[in-house]
Amino acid sequence: MKISYLQIAALSILLISCGNDNSNESGQSNFSRFGGNGSQQATSVETNEVEVGQIADQVRSFGNVKAQNEISVLPQVSNRITEIYVDLGDTVRQGEALAKIYDATFRDQLSQAESQLEQSRIALRRDSAEYQRQQSLMERDLTSESELDIAQAAYQSSRAQFESARSSLTQAQEDFNNTIVRSPVDGVITNRALEVGDLATTGTELFQIASTNGYESRIYLPVQDWRAVKVGQEVSLRISNESGISAEGVVSRKSPQLDATTGLGEVVITLTSVGNAVYPGVLAENVINITTKDRALIVPRSALVEQVETVINPESNTIELERSYSVFVSRGDSVAERRELELGIEQGDRIEVLSGLLPNDRIIVTGQSGLDDGARINVATGDQFQAPQERQIGGNANESGRQAPLANMNMTDEERAAAREKMQNMSREERMAYLRELRQQQADSTSNGQ
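Structure tokens predicted for Efflux RND transporter periplasmic adaptor subunit:
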């Protein structure tokens, strides 16, 4: 004989109904014990008020702090280094001597250039006088045109040699002066490449100086964050080992394009105020405030209850996940009410609520997992909210708030403390059996005493 699905379903309902008619030892039905509204066990929860405060949509990225200007000091002449006057971390002023290069060769070149200049000056004076004399004689027809031309050519040659000698002296003087390497700016020595005795050559870095005019941080952002960042937005910087804000800054420049290799966009942040922990090269977290709301409703992320639904998109024939969020609100400290939320800005563990809550609502922040809309709750905090296995056993009150069983027994304080310690790691059934055993021992001792 074939049995239809309807017959099977009816038979199942009948069996369940019959099973629910069985009463437990105390005379209560299973339904009233576990599912009946009249005796539903209240869930202990912890509540907090909805926070009303400031929240900001932020972009976070790490970058190294560096001086706005970093200058490489290159020797202008090549020779051996004889003296170095500064070291790493030293603060220098513009024009201050940093190092000395062996200068004997350049001193000799300078002396030779000075001598050549003096010789050319004497020759220029002589030829200039002769040219003037020939001009005077020519005016009185006492000399020929050829003599005048010879005197003029000699004068012009002497003048050219004088200018060349003067230029050579200028170069020799410059080379000699460059044997002392000087700082081009005010700043701090951040790198020293050579030591005393090394050969300094033109084009090779000798020092690196970070200008003290200001600091900046350069960060590289993905396209979504890069698009949201605007010049002029405020930035807070925090050094990794600092608990608070270490520096303040502002977005001063932004690259107009993304890097073709990495797909990241560069953003330059100029520091406007710095603390003692900020120095060139330090790694800092840059927090850029995109949007700030002063009076927003804010809930902790841990209070949210997430619902995930699987949706099949018939057009693309794909499975998509739709997420929605809610919180439970304490109504009269006895009933949990589910509120569907529309969320806004997220800032760390704090999330803005756009709709679904009121400023005076008290949300359930602990114990909300597994609650249903309309479930009974018991708002508790501190020791009252501890789980049963974490509570002190054998104290003045038991889990249900009644007087503890040990308090009614004729025991000394030491015996009662020993019993409490023994029951710490017992299950509920083991504790009940142990208490029955203690009561029986008490009864036996009383009857023997009579």
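Residues 1-38, 386-403 have pLDDT under 50 and may be disordered.
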